[in-house]
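Whiteboard transcription, Tuesday session. T.W. wrote the structure tokens on the left side:
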């Protein structure tokens, strides 16, 4: 029964992570599929560019929120670090491989940010500050995301977080960076789009 309960909660977390807020909000406000414009991504940056500031910020908050809530819920029910890490993975997997979008989705940066903020708030806060500083000076959301995900595991090491959190943060960072490979190529070529602040 215990394993069944864990499985049910992890599936629920995956479903929460799968909610494509970028797609939903864009369709409700503008009536088109966000995946057909801009970078074709359902994330907050593409919504920000294609629909507007308020829509983009709303998607960002909701995507962060679903990651945070998923881990918070797991922590409240089981109070187990390993299960909380599984919840983080499930939420990010849901966002990246959404069951509602035929197992396609976004890169998982915002959802991962929320999930890891519930696990390691101080390292994540430092990571977010790093993201903000790079974004302010370069206006490249992709570069800011990459810098942020590199800072996070380093901060986890410095502040001596649980080993499981450190290991997962390294793996998650590598995956997110790999998912940004097209952006990295555009950054090198100088063709990556900036965002207006």
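and on the right, the sequence the group agreed on:
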């Amino acid at each position: 029964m215990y394993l069944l309960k864990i499985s049910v909660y992890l599936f629920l977390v995956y479903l929460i992570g799968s909610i494509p807020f970028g797609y939903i909000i864009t369709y409700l406000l503008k009536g088109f599929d966000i995946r057909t414009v801009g970078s074709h991504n359902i994330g907050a940056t593409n919504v920000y560019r294609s629909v507007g500031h308020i829509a983009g910020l709303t998607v960002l908050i909701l995507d962060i929120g679903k990651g945070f809530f998923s881990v918070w819920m797991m922590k409240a029910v089981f109070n187990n670090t390993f299960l909380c890490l599984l919840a983080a993975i499930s939420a990010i997997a849901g966002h990246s491989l959404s069951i509602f979008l035929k197992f396609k989705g976004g890169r998982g940066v915002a959802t991962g940010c929320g999930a890891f903020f519930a696990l390691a708030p101080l390292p994540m806060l430092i990571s977010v500050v790093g993201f903000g500083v790079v974004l302010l000076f370069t206006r490249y959301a992709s570069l800011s995301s990459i810098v942020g995900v590199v800072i996070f595991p380093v901060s986890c090491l410095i502040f001596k977080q649980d080993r499981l959190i450190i290991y997962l943060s390294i793996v998650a960072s590598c995956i997110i960076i790999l998912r940004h490979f097209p952006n990295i190529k555009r950054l090198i070529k100088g063709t990556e789009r900036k965002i207006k602040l």
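Someone added at the bottom: The chain has a mean pLDDT of 93.
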